[in-house]
Amino acid sequence: MSVRRCAVILAAGQGTRMKSSLPKVAHPVAGAPMIVWAIEAARDAGCDDLVVVVGHGREVMTALVTARFGDTVRFAVQTEQRGTADAVKAGLAAVPEGVDEVLITYGDVPCVTAASLRALVSARAAHGGPLGMMVTAVADPTGYGRVLRDAAGAITAIREHKDCTPAERAVTTVNPGLYVVTRAFLGSGLGRIGTANAQGEYYLTDLVAMAAAEGGVAELFWEHRSLGGVNDRAELAAAEELLYTQIADRHRRQGSSISVGARIDHDVRLAAGVTLGPGVVLRGKTEVGAETVVDVGVVIDDATLGPRVLVKPYSVIQKCSVAAGAQIGPFAHLRPDSVVEEDAHVGNFVELKKTRLGRGAKANHLAYLGDGDVGPGANIGAGTIFCNYDGVNKHKTTIGEGAFVGSNSSLVAPVTVGRGAYVGSGSVVTVDVPDDALAVGRARQSNKEGYGKRLRERAKQSRG
Ligand code: UD1
Ligand code: MG
Asked: What is the predicted pLDDT for the residue at 108?
Protein backbone atom coordinates (compact mmCIF):
# COMPACT_ATOMS: atom_id res chain seq x y z
CA MET A 1 0.00 0.00 0.00
CA SER A 2 1.39 3.37 -0.90
CA VAL A 3 2.04 6.02 1.74
CA ARG A 4 -0.21 9.05 1.63
CA ARG A 5 1.89 12.09 2.37
CA CYS A 6 0.87 15.66 3.11
CA ALA A 7 3.12 18.70 3.26
CA VAL A 8 2.62 21.37 5.88
CA ILE A 9 4.36 24.52 4.68
CA LEU A 10 4.85 27.23 7.30
CA ALA A 11 4.32 30.71 5.93
CA ALA A 12 2.62 32.71 8.65
CA GLY A 13 5.51 35.07 9.38
CA GLN A 14 5.51 38.70 8.32
CA GLY A 15 9.15 38.96 7.40
CA THR A 16 9.76 42.40 8.87
CA ARG A 17 13.37 42.42 7.69
CA MET A 18 12.16 42.55 4.07
CA LYS A 19 10.90 46.08 4.85
CA SER A 20 7.93 45.51 2.59
CA SER A 21 4.15 45.68 2.71
CA LEU A 22 4.05 42.38 0.81
CA PRO A 23 4.21 39.19 2.94
CA LYS A 24 7.76 37.84 2.77
CA VAL A 25 6.96 34.63 0.91
CA ALA A 26 4.88 36.51 -1.69
CA HIS A 27 8.04 38.23 -2.96
CA PRO A 28 9.01 37.03 -6.43
CA VAL A 29 12.25 35.15 -6.89
CA ALA A 30 13.43 33.93 -10.31
CA GLY A 31 10.01 34.61 -11.82
CA ALA A 32 7.66 33.16 -9.20
CA PRO A 33 6.63 34.06 -5.66
CA MET A 34 8.84 32.38 -3.05
CA ILE A 35 5.94 30.28 -1.76
CA VAL A 36 5.39 28.79 -5.24
CA TRP A 37 8.88 27.26 -5.22
CA ALA A 38 8.22 25.77 -1.77
CA ILE A 39 4.86 24.30 -2.78
CA GLU A 40 6.22 22.79 -5.98
CA ALA A 41 9.21 21.20 -4.24
CA ALA A 42 6.85 19.51 -1.75
CA ARG A 43 4.44 18.44 -4.50
CA ASP A 44 7.27 17.05 -6.64
CA ALA A 45 8.62 15.19 -3.61
CA GLY A 46 5.46 13.10 -3.64
CA CYS A 47 3.06 15.01 -1.39
CA ASP A 48 -0.46 14.26 -2.56
CA ASP A 49 -1.87 16.87 -0.21
CA LEU A 50 -0.54 20.34 0.52
CA VAL A 51 -1.35 22.65 3.41
CA VAL A 52 0.02 26.18 3.66
CA VAL A 53 -0.09 27.81 7.10
CA VAL A 54 -0.80 31.50 6.61
CA GLY A 55 -1.05 34.39 9.03
CA HIS A 56 0.30 37.79 8.07
CA GLY A 57 -1.10 38.99 4.75
CA ARG A 58 -3.21 35.89 4.38
CA GLU A 59 -5.62 37.42 1.82
CA VAL A 60 -2.70 38.18 -0.49
CA MET A 61 -1.22 34.74 0.15
CA THR A 62 -4.37 32.73 -0.47
CA ALA A 63 -5.15 34.73 -3.62
CA LEU A 64 -1.74 34.18 -5.15
CA VAL A 65 -1.52 30.50 -4.22
CA THR A 66 -5.05 29.77 -5.45
CA ALA A 67 -4.37 31.58 -8.73
CA ARG A 68 -1.59 29.07 -9.48
CA PHE A 69 -2.69 25.89 -7.76
CA GLY A 70 -6.48 26.15 -7.63
CA ASP A 71 -7.99 24.01 -4.89
CA THR A 72 -5.09 21.53 -4.78
CA VAL A 73 -3.62 23.55 -1.87
CA ARG A 74 -5.45 23.91 1.45
CA PHE A 75 -4.89 26.74 3.90
CA ALA A 76 -4.65 26.78 7.66
CA VAL A 77 -4.59 30.02 9.60
CA GLN A 78 -2.28 30.75 12.51
CA THR A 79 -3.56 34.02 13.92
CA GLU A 80 -0.82 34.60 16.49
CA GLN A 81 2.85 33.65 16.03
CA ARG A 82 3.42 31.47 19.06
CA GLY A 83 6.18 29.30 17.67
CA THR A 84 6.83 26.69 15.02
CA ALA A 85 5.00 23.91 16.90
CA ASP A 86 1.90 26.09 17.17
CA ALA A 87 2.10 26.78 13.44
CA VAL A 88 2.33 23.06 12.63
CA LYS A 89 -0.58 22.37 14.98
CA ALA A 90 -2.69 24.83 12.99
CA GLY A 91 -1.56 23.09 9.81
CA LEU A 92 -2.30 19.61 11.13
CA ALA A 93 -5.96 20.57 11.60
CA ALA A 94 -6.17 20.97 7.80
CA VAL A 95 -4.38 17.69 6.99
CA PRO A 96 -6.99 15.36 5.51
CA GLU A 97 -8.02 12.01 6.95
CA GLY A 98 -6.04 9.07 5.65
CA VAL A 99 -2.67 10.84 5.50
CA ASP A 100 0.14 8.62 6.86
CA GLU A 101 3.03 11.04 7.09
CA VAL A 102 3.59 14.78 7.12
CA LEU A 103 6.46 16.65 5.49
CA ILE A 104 7.16 19.94 7.27
CA THR A 105 8.80 22.70 5.24
CA TYR A 106 8.88 26.51 5.06
CA GLY A 107 7.66 29.06 2.58
CA ASP A 108 10.90 31.02 2.81
CA VAL A 109 13.37 28.39 1.59
CA PRO A 110 12.85 28.59 -2.19
CA CYS A 111 16.03 26.72 -3.16
CA VAL A 112 15.14 23.47 -1.38
CA THR A 113 14.86 20.85 -4.10
CA ALA A 114 12.28 18.11 -4.50
CA ALA A 115 15.20 15.68 -4.73
CA SER A 116 16.43 16.59 -1.25
CA LEU A 117 12.90 16.23 0.21
CA ARG A 118 12.48 12.85 -1.51
CA ALA A 119 15.78 11.74 -0.01
CA LEU A 120 14.54 12.81 3.44
CA VAL A 121 11.34 10.81 2.99
CA SER A 122 13.39 7.76 1.95
CA ALA A 123 15.77 8.15 4.90
CA ARG A 124 12.90 8.00 7.40
CA ALA A 125 11.27 5.09 5.61
CA ALA A 126 14.54 3.14 5.67
CA HIS A 127 15.11 3.95 9.36
CA GLY A 128 11.56 3.19 10.42
CA GLY A 129 11.48 5.69 13.31
CA PRO A 130 8.69 8.24 13.75
CA LEU A 131 10.69 11.30 12.60
CA GLY A 132 13.28 12.09 9.98
CA MET A 133 15.11 15.40 9.80
CA MET A 134 17.64 17.09 7.61
CA VAL A 135 20.89 18.19 9.19
CA THR A 136 23.53 20.47 7.79
CA ALA A 137 26.82 22.10 8.71
CA VAL A 138 27.52 25.82 8.79
CA ALA A 139 30.61 27.85 9.63
CA ASP A 140 28.64 30.24 11.83
CA PRO A 141 25.76 28.46 13.59
CA THR A 142 24.40 31.61 15.30
CA GLY A 143 20.61 31.55 15.41
CA TYR A 144 20.24 27.89 14.44
CA GLY A 145 19.08 25.01 16.59
CA ARG A 146 22.11 22.79 17.35
CA VAL A 147 22.04 19.05 16.71
CA LEU A 148 22.87 17.18 19.95
CA ARG A 149 24.00 13.56 19.91
CA ASP A 150 24.68 10.73 22.33
CA ALA A 151 28.03 8.97 22.68
CA ALA A 152 27.08 6.60 19.86
CA GLY A 153 26.34 9.52 17.53
CA ALA A 154 22.54 9.21 17.46
CA ILE A 155 20.56 12.46 17.55
CA THR A 156 19.08 13.08 21.00
CA ALA A 157 17.68 16.62 20.72
CA ILE A 158 17.77 20.00 19.03
CA ARG A 159 18.75 22.90 21.25
CA GLU A 160 17.74 26.39 20.15
CA HIS A 161 20.54 28.96 20.07
CA LYS A 162 19.11 30.98 22.95
CA ASP A 163 18.78 27.88 25.12
CA CYS A 164 22.30 26.50 24.49
CA THR A 165 25.11 26.17 27.00
CA PRO A 166 28.44 27.61 25.80
CA ALA A 167 29.59 24.08 24.91
CA GLU A 168 26.42 23.43 22.88
CA ARG A 169 26.86 26.75 21.08
CA ALA A 170 30.16 25.47 19.68
CA VAL A 171 28.30 22.74 17.74
CA THR A 172 28.24 23.57 14.03
CA THR A 173 25.92 20.78 12.90
CA VAL A 174 22.54 22.49 12.81
CA ASN A 175 18.86 22.00 12.13
CA PRO A 176 17.74 23.49 8.81
CA GLY A 177 14.13 22.89 9.94
CA LEU A 178 12.89 20.28 7.45
CA TYR A 179 11.24 17.16 8.81
CA VAL A 180 9.10 14.19 7.85
CA VAL A 181 6.98 12.78 10.67
CA THR A 182 4.38 10.04 10.93
CA ARG A 183 0.98 11.54 11.42
CA ALA A 184 0.34 9.51 14.54
CA PHE A 185 3.55 10.67 16.19
CA LEU A 186 2.99 14.30 15.12
CA GLY A 187 -0.49 14.34 16.64
CA SER A 188 0.64 12.94 19.97
CA GLY A 189 3.95 14.87 20.05
CA LEU A 190 2.49 18.32 19.40
CA GLY A 191 0.12 17.88 22.33
CA ARG A 192 3.08 17.39 24.65
CA ILE A 193 5.05 20.54 23.69
CA GLY A 194 5.11 23.41 26.18
CA THR A 195 6.73 26.85 26.30
CA ALA A 196 9.34 26.37 29.03
CA ASN A 197 12.24 27.80 27.04
CA ALA A 198 14.22 31.02 26.60
CA GLN A 199 11.75 32.46 24.07
CA GLY A 200 8.51 31.28 25.71
CA GLU A 201 7.50 29.76 22.33
CA TYR A 202 6.13 26.39 21.27
CA TYR A 203 9.24 24.82 19.76
CA LEU A 204 8.64 22.25 17.04
CA THR A 205 12.17 21.07 17.71
CA ASP A 206 10.98 19.52 21.00
CA LEU A 207 9.57 16.72 18.81
CA VAL A 208 13.12 15.56 18.09
CA ALA A 209 13.92 14.62 21.70
CA MET A 210 10.57 12.79 21.93
CA ALA A 211 11.25 10.87 18.73
CA ALA A 212 14.74 9.98 19.96
CA ALA A 213 13.10 8.28 22.97
CA GLU A 214 10.31 6.68 20.93
CA GLY A 215 11.97 4.85 18.05
CA GLY A 216 14.87 7.09 17.09
CA VAL A 217 15.54 9.95 14.69
CA ALA A 218 16.41 9.36 11.05
CA GLU A 219 18.76 11.99 9.65
CA LEU A 220 19.78 13.13 6.21
CA PHE A 221 22.81 15.35 5.78
CA TRP A 222 22.41 17.93 3.03
CA GLU A 223 24.66 20.70 1.84
CA HIS A 224 23.67 24.01 3.39
CA ARG A 225 23.58 26.08 0.21
CA SER A 226 20.07 25.14 -0.92
CA LEU A 227 18.58 25.07 2.58
CA GLY A 228 19.12 28.69 3.53
CA GLY A 229 16.08 30.76 4.48
CA VAL A 230 15.34 34.19 3.08
CA ASN A 231 14.90 36.91 5.70
CA ASP A 232 15.95 40.08 3.89
CA ARG A 233 16.44 41.28 0.34
CA ALA A 234 20.14 40.44 0.33
CA GLU A 235 19.28 36.80 1.08
CA LEU A 236 16.52 37.02 -1.53
CA ALA A 237 19.10 38.02 -4.15
CA ALA A 238 21.40 35.17 -3.10
CA ALA A 239 18.52 32.68 -3.33
CA GLU A 240 17.63 34.02 -6.77
CA GLU A 241 21.16 33.53 -8.02
CA LEU A 242 21.14 29.94 -6.80
CA LEU A 243 17.73 29.27 -8.38
CA TYR A 244 18.96 30.58 -11.73
CA THR A 245 21.93 28.23 -11.45
CA GLN A 246 19.64 25.29 -10.60
CA ILE A 247 17.34 26.06 -13.57
CA ALA A 248 20.25 26.48 -15.97
CA ASP A 249 21.85 23.23 -14.79
CA ARG A 250 18.57 21.36 -15.38
CA HIS A 251 18.51 22.58 -19.00
CA ARG A 252 22.21 21.86 -19.46
CA ARG A 253 21.58 18.26 -18.43
CA GLN A 254 18.77 18.13 -21.00
CA GLY A 255 21.16 19.17 -23.76
CA SER A 256 21.02 22.95 -23.93
CA SER A 257 24.04 25.25 -23.74
CA ILE A 258 23.31 27.95 -21.20
CA SER A 259 25.98 30.58 -20.59
CA VAL A 260 26.80 31.48 -17.04
CA GLY A 261 24.73 34.52 -16.19
CA ALA A 262 21.76 33.73 -18.44
CA ARG A 263 18.51 33.96 -16.44
CA ILE A 264 15.64 31.60 -17.13
CA ASP A 265 12.55 32.38 -15.07
CA HIS A 266 10.30 29.83 -13.38
CA ASP A 267 7.57 29.62 -16.05
CA VAL A 268 9.87 29.50 -19.10
CA ARG A 269 9.93 26.33 -21.24
CA LEU A 270 12.94 25.34 -23.34
CA ALA A 271 13.16 22.55 -25.88
CA ALA A 272 16.42 20.59 -26.02
CA GLY A 273 19.46 21.91 -27.86
CA VAL A 274 18.87 25.59 -27.19
CA THR A 275 21.85 27.94 -26.90
CA LEU A 276 21.65 30.99 -24.65
CA GLY A 277 24.45 33.54 -24.60
CA PRO A 278 25.68 35.55 -21.61
CA GLY A 279 23.22 38.02 -20.15
CA VAL A 280 20.15 36.52 -21.82
CA VAL A 281 16.99 37.06 -19.77
CA LEU A 282 13.95 34.85 -20.43
CA ARG A 283 10.85 35.92 -18.54
CA GLY A 284 7.16 35.12 -18.20
CA LYS A 285 5.68 32.21 -20.13
CA THR A 286 8.37 32.29 -22.79
CA GLU A 287 8.86 29.14 -24.88
CA VAL A 288 11.96 28.46 -26.96
CA GLY A 289 12.10 25.79 -29.67
CA ALA A 290 14.78 23.22 -30.39
CA GLU A 291 18.16 24.36 -31.75
CA THR A 292 17.26 28.01 -31.36
CA VAL A 293 20.15 30.35 -30.57
CA VAL A 294 19.60 33.43 -28.41
CA ASP A 295 22.75 35.50 -28.33
CA VAL A 296 24.23 37.96 -25.83
CA GLY A 297 22.01 40.31 -23.85
CA VAL A 298 18.65 39.42 -25.40
CA VAL A 299 15.53 39.98 -23.25
CA ILE A 300 12.46 37.88 -24.05
CA ASP A 301 9.19 38.27 -22.19
CA ASP A 302 6.12 36.04 -22.66
CA ALA A 303 7.08 35.17 -26.23
CA THR A 304 7.11 31.97 -28.26
CA LEU A 305 10.13 31.16 -30.42
CA GLY A 306 10.00 28.22 -32.80
CA PRO A 307 12.87 25.88 -33.64
CA ARG A 308 16.12 27.06 -35.32
CA VAL A 309 15.45 30.74 -34.69
CA LEU A 310 18.51 33.00 -34.43
CA VAL A 311 18.18 36.01 -32.17
CA LYS A 312 21.24 38.21 -32.46
CA PRO A 313 22.60 40.30 -29.57
CA TYR A 314 20.69 42.89 -27.60
CA SER A 315 17.25 42.34 -29.07
CA VAL A 316 14.05 42.75 -27.02
CA ILE A 317 11.04 40.51 -27.72
CA GLN A 318 7.74 40.92 -25.86
CA LYS A 319 4.49 38.92 -26.10
CA CYS A 320 4.84 37.80 -29.69
CA SER A 321 5.71 34.75 -31.73
CA VAL A 322 8.66 34.01 -33.97
CA ALA A 323 8.46 30.97 -36.24
CA ALA A 324 11.07 28.41 -37.28
CA GLY A 325 14.20 29.63 -38.99
CA ALA A 326 13.53 33.35 -38.51
CA GLN A 327 16.39 35.72 -37.74
CA ILE A 328 16.04 38.66 -35.39
CA GLY A 329 18.45 41.49 -34.58
CA PRO A 330 20.95 42.59 -33.52
CA PHE A 331 19.18 45.43 -31.67
CA ALA A 332 15.68 44.55 -32.87
CA HIS A 333 12.55 45.33 -30.86
CA LEU A 334 9.52 43.07 -31.29
CA ARG A 335 6.60 44.52 -29.38
CA PRO A 336 3.37 42.78 -28.34
CA ASP A 337 1.13 40.95 -30.81
CA SER A 338 3.72 40.72 -33.55
CA VAL A 339 4.11 37.54 -35.56
CA VAL A 340 7.30 36.76 -37.44
CA GLU A 341 6.70 33.82 -39.76
CA GLU A 342 9.10 31.13 -40.97
CA ASP A 343 12.47 32.31 -42.25
CA ALA A 344 11.59 36.00 -42.05
CA HIS A 345 14.36 38.45 -41.10
CA VAL A 346 14.12 41.43 -38.77
CA GLY A 347 17.39 43.35 -38.72
CA ASN A 348 19.10 46.00 -36.64
CA PHE A 349 17.11 48.91 -35.24
CA VAL A 350 13.83 47.55 -36.57
CA GLU A 351 10.74 47.83 -34.37
CA LEU A 352 7.59 45.77 -34.92
CA LYS A 353 4.34 46.43 -33.08
CA LYS A 354 1.21 44.32 -33.71
CA THR A 355 2.61 43.42 -37.10
CA ARG A 356 2.77 40.18 -39.04
CA LEU A 357 5.91 39.66 -41.10
CA GLY A 358 5.10 36.90 -43.58
CA ARG A 359 7.18 33.86 -44.43
CA GLY A 360 10.60 34.84 -45.80
CA ALA A 361 9.85 38.59 -45.68
CA LYS A 362 12.68 40.93 -44.72
CA ALA A 363 12.95 44.20 -42.85
CA ASN A 364 16.66 44.39 -42.31
CA HIS A 365 17.49 47.93 -41.24
CA LEU A 366 16.11 50.90 -39.31
CA ALA A 367 12.34 50.60 -39.67
CA TYR A 368 9.13 51.05 -37.68
CA LEU A 369 6.39 48.63 -38.66
CA GLY A 370 3.32 49.21 -36.50
CA ASP A 371 -0.15 47.67 -37.09
CA GLY A 372 1.04 46.08 -40.31
CA ASP A 373 0.55 42.95 -42.34
CA VAL A 374 3.50 42.14 -44.57
CA GLY A 375 3.01 39.38 -47.11
CA PRO A 376 5.41 36.49 -47.71
CA GLY A 377 8.69 37.35 -49.39
CA ALA A 378 8.14 41.11 -49.27
CA ASN A 379 11.16 43.38 -48.78
CA ILE A 380 10.94 46.40 -46.53
CA GLY A 381 13.77 48.82 -47.25
CA ALA A 382 15.95 50.64 -44.74
CA GLY A 383 14.22 53.47 -42.95
CA THR A 384 10.65 52.47 -43.83
CA ILE A 385 7.98 53.81 -41.51
CA PHE A 386 4.41 52.56 -41.20
CA CYS A 387 2.67 55.80 -40.15
CA ASN A 388 -0.03 54.03 -38.14
CA TYR A 389 -1.24 56.80 -35.84
CA ASP A 390 -3.23 59.87 -36.75
CA GLY A 391 -3.11 61.32 -33.27
CA VAL A 392 -6.39 59.64 -32.30
CA ASN A 393 -6.66 56.22 -33.93
CA LYS A 394 -4.34 53.49 -35.17
CA HIS A 395 -4.61 52.29 -38.77
CA LYS A 396 -3.35 49.31 -40.69
CA THR A 397 -0.72 49.05 -43.42
CA THR A 398 -0.93 46.02 -45.71
CA ILE A 399 1.98 45.00 -47.93
CA GLY A 400 1.23 42.28 -50.51
CA GLU A 401 3.22 39.15 -51.18
CA GLY A 402 6.55 39.82 -52.86
CA ALA A 403 6.18 43.62 -52.77
CA PHE A 404 9.28 45.83 -52.57
CA VAL A 405 9.23 48.97 -50.47
CA GLY A 406 12.19 51.21 -51.28
CA SER A 407 14.28 52.76 -48.55
CA ASN A 408 13.10 55.69 -46.48
CA SER A 409 9.47 55.41 -47.48
CA SER A 410 6.53 56.45 -45.32
CA LEU A 411 3.31 54.46 -45.65
CA VAL A 412 0.46 56.55 -44.30
CA ALA A 413 -2.13 54.12 -42.97
CA PRO A 414 -4.70 52.97 -43.75
CA VAL A 415 -3.01 51.97 -46.97
CA THR A 416 -2.34 48.86 -49.06
CA VAL A 417 0.59 48.09 -51.34
CA GLY A 418 -0.47 45.34 -53.75
CA ARG A 419 1.20 42.02 -54.48
CA GLY A 420 4.43 42.36 -56.40
CA ALA A 421 4.22 46.18 -56.36
CA TYR A 422 7.19 48.53 -55.95
CA VAL A 423 7.41 51.69 -53.91
CA GLY A 424 10.17 54.07 -55.00
CA SER A 425 12.66 55.13 -52.34
CA GLY A 426 11.70 58.13 -50.27
CA SER A 427 8.03 57.91 -51.19
CA VAL A 428 5.20 59.06 -48.98
CA VAL A 429 2.43 56.62 -49.88
CA THR A 430 -1.06 57.88 -49.04
CA VAL A 431 -3.18 55.99 -51.58
CA ASP A 432 -3.37 52.27 -52.28
CA VAL A 433 -0.88 50.83 -54.79
CA PRO A 434 -2.34 48.22 -57.22
CA ASP A 435 -0.72 44.79 -57.64
CA ASP A 436 2.46 44.89 -59.72
CA ALA A 437 2.42 48.73 -59.97
CA LEU A 438 5.26 51.15 -59.19
CA ALA A 439 4.38 53.98 -56.83
CA VAL A 440 6.60 57.02 -56.65
CA GLY A 441 5.36 59.57 -54.16
CA ARG A 442 8.05 62.24 -54.00
CA ALA A 443 9.14 65.39 -55.89
CA ARG A 444 10.70 64.62 -59.29
CA GLN A 445 14.46 65.21 -59.29
CA SER A 446 15.81 68.10 -61.38
CA ASN A 447 19.54 68.72 -62.07
CA LYS A 448 20.76 72.31 -62.54
CA GLU A 449 24.01 72.20 -64.54
CA GLY A 450 26.94 74.09 -62.93
CA TYR A 451 24.82 75.35 -60.07
CA GLY A 452 26.89 73.65 -57.37
CA LYS A 453 30.08 75.34 -58.53
CA ARG A 454 28.41 78.76 -58.66
CA LEU A 455 27.11 78.32 -55.11
CA ARG A 456 30.58 77.45 -53.83
CA GLU A 457 32.16 80.49 -55.47
CA ARG A 458 29.50 82.82 -54.10
CA ALA A 459 30.13 81.43 -50.62
CA LYS A 460 33.89 81.98 -50.89
CA GLN A 461 33.38 85.62 -51.96
CA SER A 462 31.07 86.38 -49.08
CA ARG A 463 33.72 85.09 -46.66
CA GLY A 464 35.83 88.11 -47.77
C1 UD1 B 1 13.74 27.36 13.55
C2 UD1 B 1 14.11 26.15 14.40
C3 UD1 B 1 15.64 26.04 14.46
C4 UD1 B 1 16.21 25.98 13.07
C5 UD1 B 1 15.77 27.17 12.25
C6 UD1 B 1 16.20 27.01 10.82
C7 UD1 B 1 12.32 25.97 16.00
C8 UD1 B 1 11.91 26.19 17.40
N9 UD1 B 1 13.55 26.30 15.68
O10 UD1 B 1 14.20 28.50 14.26
O11 UD1 B 1 15.99 24.87 15.17
O12 UD1 B 1 17.63 25.93 13.15
O13 UD1 B 1 14.34 27.26 12.26
O14 UD1 B 1 15.92 28.17 10.12
O15 UD1 B 1 11.54 25.48 15.19
N16 UD1 B 1 6.60 30.41 11.69
C17 UD1 B 1 5.24 30.46 11.69
N18 UD1 B 1 4.58 30.65 12.88
C19 UD1 B 1 5.24 30.79 14.05
C20 UD1 B 1 6.64 30.73 14.04
C21 UD1 B 1 7.30 30.53 12.85
O22 UD1 B 1 4.61 30.33 10.64
O23 UD1 B 1 4.57 30.95 15.07
C24 UD1 B 1 7.30 30.22 10.43
C25 UD1 B 1 8.08 31.47 10.06
O26 UD1 B 1 7.32 32.29 9.19
C27 UD1 B 1 9.29 30.92 9.38
C28 UD1 B 1 9.47 29.53 9.98
O29 UD1 B 1 8.26 29.21 10.58
O30 UD1 B 1 9.11 30.76 8.01
C31 UD1 B 1 10.62 29.45 10.96
O32 UD1 B 1 10.36 30.29 12.04
P33 UD1 B 1 11.52 31.08 12.78
O34 UD1 B 1 10.95 31.80 13.93
O35 UD1 B 1 12.30 31.85 11.78
O36 UD1 B 1 12.40 29.88 13.31
P37 UD1 B 1 13.80 30.03 13.92
O38 UD1 B 1 13.69 30.76 15.21
O39 UD1 B 1 14.73 30.53 12.93
MG1 MG C 1 12.01 32.30 15.87
From this structure: 97
Sorted by where each starts, the structural domains of the chain and their CATH numbers stand as 5-226 (3.90.550.10), 233-439 (2.160.10.10)
What angle, 0 to 180 degrees and rounded to 10, lies between the N-to-C axes of helices 183-190 and 206-213?
120
- Residue 177: nearest ligand to its CA? 1
CB-defined site of ligand 1, < 6 Å: 10, 12-13, 53, 78, 81-84, 86-87, 106-108, 144-145, 158, 160, 174-177, 203-205, 229
DSSP assignment string, 187-207: HHHHTT----STT-S--TTHH
- Closest by CA position to 60, among listed 93, 92, 19, 24: 24
Ligand 2 centroid–CA 2 distance in Å is 35
Tens of pLDDT along 351-369? 999 999 999 999 999 999 9
What tens digit of pLDDT does each residue of 134-162 get?
Answer: 999 999 999 999 999 999 999 999 999 99
Measure 272 CA to ligand 2 centroid, in angstroms: 44
Task: Say if pTM beats, i.e. exceeds, 0.90.
Answer: yes
The answer to whether residue 28 scores a pLDDT higher than 70 is yes
Q: Ligand 1: which of 77, 84, 164 to mutate, judged by most atoms within 8 Å of the beta carbon?
A: 84
Count how many Cα atoms sit within 13 Å of the Cα of residue 115 in the half-sphere of its side chain. 6
